[in-house]
Structure formats: C-alpha cells, structure tokens
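Note to self: user wants both folds in one dump. Writing first protein now.
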Amino acid sequence: MLKGKNVLITGAGKRIGKFLALALAKDGANIILHYRSSEKEAEEVLNTVLEKGVNAVKIKADLEKTVEVKRLIEESIKNFGRVDILINNASIYYPTPLSEVTESDIDRFYNIHVKAPFILSKELGQIMYKNKWGRIINIADYSALRPYKNFTPYSISKGAMLTMTRAFAKEFAPYVLVNAVLPGPIIPAEGIEDLETPLEKTILKKWGGEIEVYKAVKYLIQTDFTTGAFLPVEGGRLIC
C-alpha cells in the first residue's frame, strides 16, 4: 500500500512531522519534506530518509503566503509527477489570552491551519481524484472538540480544519479519502519543564509519543472504508 507512494508532509523538519517522514519512508514511501525555517533539521531528515532507499526532496515554503503554498504544489509535482498522500501537519501553537488576542494572531492561525491546508487539499485532491486514488490526512487537535482556555484562536482554527475534513471528504468521494487525526499529549511542547500537569486530565496518565500518531496515519492510509472521520489519539482526554 505504501511502497512507491508519494507523500507530501507539511512541517516535516521536526517533532511529529519528522517522525511521520521517517516512518513512512521506512515503509517504502517517497517523501516530500516541507519546512519553513527548520532547514538544518529538514536536511538531516532528508538524509536519513534517503538512506532508506526511497526518493525524497525538501521544499521550503512559508504557508502564510499563498504564492509560496502554490509553489510548494508546483515543485512537488515537478519533482515527483504526482502526490498520492497529503498530510497537513504544519502547525503553530502558543497561548493567546482572550484580552490580548490581536488580528495578527487570528490571521496566523487561520493561514496555517485553514487556508494553506485548503489550497493544498483543493489542488492536490483534484489531481488525486483524476488518478482515482488518494489520501488527505489533517493533523488537527482534540481541542477542536474540547477547547481550552487561553488558546481560543488556535482551537477555533483547528475546529475549522475538522469542518474542512468532512467537506473535502464529500467533494472527493469516492476516490480520495479525507480524514483527521486529533492528537492530545503526544510529546511535550518545546521548552516545557512541567511534564506532569498536562497529563492531569488525561485518563491514561502518560505521553503518547509520535508513534501513536503514526499508527493512526497509517490506518487512514491503508483503509478503504473510512472517510470524513476524526480519529482521537489523546489518551482519553475527550472523556475526562
């Protein structure tokens, strides 16, 4: 199923995106590594992926700029001929107390979590549809269903990503399956020192690790009968 497939992963230089790139390459997929500022990290991921005997390329693009999103699409097609699987993983995450939220904050979350994935899904999804096979997987967040205080613009933008998932699932059926993964406490945020507090409202009382997101992604690639679905990978936070 994965061998020889061309996979575009946004935000593939670090964290979950990096793990997905390495794991999918190990399974035989060719990888298009998108990054914005993590060039050193993306180069390291690229070299490791190439060692696995698959094709790979890294492409720099600022997802806040439409012209660069379209260039990412063009360069992906130029390098690989087609994209079979799109994983909208790139994300930004920082606290925004409601009294301090600016229009710039709203625009940033919208551009990265909604606008860029929309353009990528629309353009690449149409090609997948013509090819009569494709997968689009959006890495959302459990907070899209259960928002938490001081992260309102983030949670709203991830909620929009869920609506987009179901809308595109209808648009591209029956050939392109479109689903979302809802991670919870997978790995600690960069710079976090308190590793226990984030687990207080997690039933399983542990960090999941990137492999849990990969398991969900792999299922959504391999399935032929799941679309428009939201797959929680959050240790039970949604039922706390």
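First done. Writing the second protein, which came from a different request thread.
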Amino acid sequence: MASGLFGIEHSNRSADDHWEKNCFNSSFPAATANYMMENNIPAIYISLEEVDGKLKVVATEIPIEEVFNCKGLHANELYFSFESIFEPYQQYSFDTIDGIDLVVKDLKGNYLSPLEVKLTVLPDNTTYKKSEDKWGSEMVVRSATTSYCALGMYDAVKDKALEVREIFENACASIQGWDNDYEMTHKIPLLSESIDEFQRQFYKFQKPLLMQTLWKTQGKSPLLAENAFDIVIWSDYAFSRLFIDSSYVVTNTMSRPMRATARLARCLWELSKSGKIRVVDIYRQMAFGNQTDKEFSIPGNKWRNYVEATRTAHPILKKDMVNKIIENGYIEKLSPERRFDQTLYFTVRNQV
C-alpha cells in the first residue's frame, strides 16, 4: 500500500499512520530527504572543524545518501523504522536504550543510520522582525537525542577507549556525586574542557545525528515562501556544541546546557572504562530538578549563530515541490487545525 509520501514504500508505519499528528512531523521530513536523494540535491551540513587551533562549527553540504549511510541504494530499497531503537547501540547499555525518531535499514534488516528528526518553521518569534538573511528556527531537543549523541560518539572511537579514558579521567574520577548540584556546578568547566579536548582529537569521526527539515513562511504569515523547504543535517559533534558552548556560562545551579554537558562527559568516561553503562539510569539520576524528557531548546537567534548558510535565506526546494513529495490526493489526509498542515493544505489547494 502506498504511503502517499515520496520514497517511503517500506516502513513500520501504516499508510494512515504517516498522516497522524505525531507521525507526519517525521514522515514528511523523511520523504523530503528521499526526494532530495533521488534528485542528487545535497543537504546543508553543520559539522565541527578545527580552525586555527580552535573548534568551530561550519556549514558545508552533504549528500542524503551519506546521511542515510545507504550508498548505492534508492529510497524504495530502504526500510524506514520510525520511533525505534538503533540496535547496534544497545550493546553499550545494560538497560534498554530509548528509541530515536528514524532508523534507516536496508531490506535485509541491516541497520544503516539513526537520526533524530525535526520539522521547524523559519522564521521563529525571535527572528521574524530581522532581515531575511538573519532569520532563524527554534529547535527543541529531547534527552533521547543527547543520549544517542553520546552513544554514537563512543561507537565511532570504541577501539580508542584508552585514549578517551585518559582525556576524561582527571575531570571525572574525583566526582563523588554526579547528581549533586553543588559539586557538579563546580566541575562543569573541567568537564567542558575535557569534551573540547576529546572533540579536538576525534572530530574526524563525527557523523550525522539530527535531520532538521525547514519550512519557510512569508514572515509571520501562514503562507509558504517561494523557496520553501530545505534540510539541515547536524553532525553529533556540531549538535553537542549547542549545549557545551552554553555550559561555559556557569550558574549557581545546574542549567539545562550544563546538565547535558555533564551527562555527555559521564557517558563517554564510563564507556571508555567498561564499554557498557546504564545510560537510562544516568539520565534519570542526573535530572537536577528539571523534567527528564526535554533536554534543552535553542531559539532562532541563537540557532542562527551556528547555521551560517546562505541557503537559509533561499531554501533549495520551491514550494511547488510539495506536489512531488506528497502524492496527488493525499493532501486531504492533513489536519488543517495544525499550523504546518494548514500551510501545506492551502498551498496545494491554491495551486490547483
């Protein structure tokens, strides 16, 4: 049965599931990525490099084929497993790890890529009054994303565990209580510096983690801009800078960025020692009075500091590409009471 979405022929979601409220926000980005892959349109790639001895987030481009880790395969030869566990990472945790938004597999069941998926509007409330080239997009991040960030980082350098341990040992070994607010606020600078050193040494091992699909409107109006869609891929290393950089602003109590930084450092250190941890317990224990499902959020004006790409002013896909991504007749399955659905629905209906 056809999904009505470009390239999604094999999935753990039914044809109707894709159009439900909490599913369309990841199914549509997957279909958009499929369209870009099949038409050799690269995504924006936000990655971490060392420039003049300093770590710097830079914007380049990356083929979707590389994001999906599916060299030589077409979209119809892939299996899209939404909200699923990326089983290759389970080996690093005694407890059951969380699922991630999208797990890409081949039709033989081989695991290819785990991706967190975001669908965000451009501009947001913090940037819509600025000039278009300074518009940004808000991003809300779940704890599952940062746990996958830690697991993926370790997976890529697991054969260098001794080197990793040496980097973190000084900062981590003396910590008495990882859930102690007072102790951890004082340890954060050292933990942040240890992660910096880790990333400076291993940044060439970074890989895609988060797929952010942008939909651009005409300012605050519900109408799509002429250049309406694009995809920003964040590497695990670049993504981590969103909270590590903010953790250098030390407060009297643990802020969300500080908490995320401490969790990442602990995961990498403990994995380097034993190769297996209780990742869910670590995240539950180190809550510091904040809800555990939401890790942090990034407003558009801060997001823009990391995404220095000209394509954000002129997204690569025109608004009429929605007719290629969503098959004819399926637009009726959308729910116009939801903002993005409403925008797509009336955009398509006005083109008819």
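Dump finished. Worth passing along: The beta strands are 43-51, 54-62, 78-84, 100-106, 111-122, 139-142, 208-217, 224-235, 294-298, 317-318.
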